[in-house]
Amino acid sequence: MTVPGCLSGMAIERRPAAACRLPGQKRGITMSVRRITPAGILVAAVVALAGCGSQSTVAPAAAPATPAPTAPALTITDPWVKTAKKGMSAAFGTLVNNTDAEVTVVSAASSLSPKVELHEVVESAGKMVMRPKEGGIVIPARGTHQLQPGGDHIMLMGVTEAVRPGAEIPFTLTLKDGGTLEFTAVGKDFAGGQENYQPGTDPKGHEGMDMGESHG
């Protein structure tokens, strides 16, 4: 039988009729009510929670990884400009191709000079001749190309102000695909190869500049 009021905070147990029979009550099985203590409630709650241990726990979704920034197609390391009081100067450094295809520099510009060209140095008729580099400067895929005195370089003609040691000179290189590379070169004294550039023409008819050793 169900004992009213025993559904909340009560426990029902069977006892012999003799133990629970009231005066005048017939023999039989009676239901007795026993109050559950707070400690008993706590134990029941722990048991109920233990039964949920097999349930899976969903971990929070991981935040999407931030993609690494893409390296520019062309960079330059250690760029510098030869100091000069007037006239001509040149810029050097190491061009670095960060792509899987060759990169070609087709022109250069700088606020230091109204006329900036890509030059090469070649031997002609027993003399070293500096001339514009036809087709531009090509940097191989994942390779480098040196701009250095006596070799390929960026030529500045008619510089608008003296280039002193430590001066910071801005440059912009334009690539064959239309991209650009902007960088700042630092003024640096260079004792060797202080050439006096004189107009000249090599045997193939290319206009260039003879590289003498006088200091103009």
Automatic annotation (TrEMBL):
Residues 203-216 have a biased composition (Basic and acidic residues). Residues 190-216 are annotated as: Disordered. InterPro entries: LpqE-like (IPR007410), Lxx211020-like (IPR058248), PCuAC_sf (IPR036182). It comes from the Bacteria. This is Copper chaperone PCu(A)C. It comes from Streptosporangium amethystogenes subsp. fukuiense. The lineage of its organism: Bacteria, Bacillati, Actinomycetota, Actinomycetes, Streptosporangiales.
